[in-house]
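User: C-alpha cells for this one?
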Amino acid sequence: MTRSTFSGFTIAQLAMASSQRALDVTGQNIANINTKGYTRQRVDLVSLNLRGASPYSTNPGSKIGYGVEIAGISQIRDPFLDVQYRNQIAKVGTADGHQATLDELADIFDETDTDALKKALSDLSSSLDKLSSNAGNSEFDSIVRSRCQVLLNYIHQKAADLSSVREGTLEGLEKTDIPTVNGLLSDIGELNDTIWKSQVLGNPSLELLDQRNNKLDELASYLPISVTYKEVELGTGNKFNYPVVTFNGSDGMTFPLTGGEHGENFASLSMDRNVDHKGKPDGTVSIHLIPASDLPAYADTSELKTDITNYLKEGSLQGTVDMLNKSGELDSPATDYRGIGYYEKAFDSFVQSFANTLNDLNGHMHTYTGTNGMPTTGNAKELTSTGAELAEFSIGFSKTSGNFLENETITVNGTTLTFGDGTKGTIKIGSTLQESMVNLADKLSKDPATKTLDVAGTPQSGTWSYDGSSKKMTWKSTNPVPSGTEIKSDSIKMSSFQYKAYAGNVRNFDLFQTTDGSKDFSASNIKIADDWMNNSIHIVSSHDEDAGSTANDNIIKMLKSLTEEREFKYKYTYMDNSGVEQTKEISYYKGSYSQCYSNLENTQGIDSKANKAILINHISVLNQTADSKDSVSGVSLDEEGIDLMHYQRSYTAAARLMTTLDEALDVLINKTGIVGR
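Assistant:
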C-alpha cells in the first residue's frame, strides 16, 4: 500500500490546529466562569479518513486515518436535567405566588404582639358591663358608643388593608406578571429567528442558545411548559433544531407557545377583571391565551383567544390566580385553596353577625309619633247673636310640634282621615306642620260629615281654616246664628277629634347602619347609626314596659351575646338557571366573636406555615437540580486547568511529530545511497 510521503505532516498540522482550538474553547470557558446561564463548551473531534477500503489491498497492507477533524463546538447539557429544573421551578413559582400574598395577610390578622380588634371586643364587653350597673345613664351609654367606634375603626382598617392586598395583587398580575410573560415569549421568538439566521451562515450561536435557555427557565417559573426540539434541514444540508414550547395545562390541555417555520411566532397572554351577576367587579380574574400558530406574523389570530384560567396548574401565575379567585370552603362548590376571598368573606360575615345581633337586641319596637302635643277638643267663640254673626269654633295647636307621617290618622266627628301623599283620598303631608294643617282644613271643609257641627243643639254647616300665626284651626258657620241665640264656650260641639299614630312607623333604634344604604353589613360599610351618634336613640335597657328605671335585662343579653357560642355563616347571592336571584348560606365556624376572629387569625397562620414548608421543600429540590445541572454544564476551574495542560501537551506532541517527520525526510533525501562514497 502506497501512501503520500507528506501525509504525516498533514496529520501533525491538523493535530496542532485541533489542540489550538481546544485551548481557545478552554479559555472561553474560563473567561465565562462567572457568567450567569453560561453553558460549558467543548470541541467535538472526529478521526479523519478521506476514503474507504481499497479492493486491491492485501496483507500485510494496512491503512490508517488522515488525522483529526474539528466537527464543531457544542455545549455540554443534559436535557433530562433541563426538564427536571423547569418542572421544579414551576412548583416553586406556585408556592411563591401563594406566600407573597399570605405574608401580606399576616400583617393584617396577626395580633400576637399588638392590641387591636380582640382588645376592642374585650373593652366593649367591659363598657356594657358598667352600663348594666348604670342603666339609663347617658354618660355610660356614650362610653359604649365610643368603644364601638374604636372597634369599627379597627374593622375599617382591616377591610381597607384587605382591599389594598387584593388591588395590589391584581395590579401586580396585570402590570408586571402578564407583561413579563409576554416579554419572555417575544424574546424567545426573536431568539429563535436570530439563531436560525446565524446558523444558516454557519455560526453555532452558542451564546444565543444560552440566552434562550435562560428565557425558557424564567418562563417555566410562570407557566408549566414543556420544551421539545424540532429538526429542520437547511438548504446547505446542515440541520437546525429549534424549540417547540408548549403550555401544559390541567386535564391534559396543551397550547403551543411558539410556532412558525423555525419558532419565530409566539403566543400572548391577557387578563380580564371579572364581574358578579349584578355587573359589579368581584375581585377575581380570567387569564386568556392567544396560542402561537404557523400563520404569518401579520395574520389576525384574535379568534384563537382561549380562557386558560381553569387550566393553570403550576407556576407563579397559578399561585397569584389562586389567591385572587379561590375562597376554599366559602366557595360554592368549595375550591382547593383559601385565597384572599376566604378572609374577606369570613371577616364580612363576622361583622354582619355582630351588627345584626346588637341591632336586633336593641329592637325596632318603639312607635314613632309624627306629631306631639295634639289637642283633643276646642272651644266656641262666646257671643249673643244679633242675627248677623257667624258661629266660630277653634282648636288650638300651640303646643303641637313635629309633622304627620304616612298612614297616621285623625278622626273628626266620627270620620277617620288618613295622611299620605294626597292620592286615594288621603291628606297630603306637607313639608312643614303648617302645610299639613292647611291641607287638613281643606279636607275637613269638603266632607259633609266633618264640616257640620252642632251649634247650640242645631246642626250647622261651615268651613275650616288654619292660621299659622295663631296656630289655630277654626270652623265658621256658613250662615249667621239666629238673633237672640246665646253661645257659650261649650255651645258648639263635635263628636270626636282624635289623632292616632301608625304602628308601622317606628323609631329606628338600630345601633349600626351601612354607609351605602344596603341591607347587608360588611367590614367596609358598617358605621355607628346616625341617631345613636346624635343621641336621638340609646341602648335600650329593657323591653319590659313595666320594668323600673334600673332594669338592665336587655343590656345583660347584649353582654352575653358577645361571649356566647353562635354559628357564623357566610351569606351569598347568585342567579339560578331561570335568572332568578337566590340566597344561600355556608356555615364555617361555631364559637364566640373573639374565638371566631382568633380562628381567622389561626387559619391564616396555619395556611402560611404550611405553604412556607412546601416552598422551602420545593426550593431545596430546585437547588439540588440546579447543582446537578451545574455539575454537568457549569465551568469548573479544576477541569479547565486539567484541559489546559492536556491540550498544551497534545499541541507540543503534535509539534514534536512534525519535527520527527522532518528529520526522517532529511535522512531519506540527504543521507540515503551515499554509504561508501
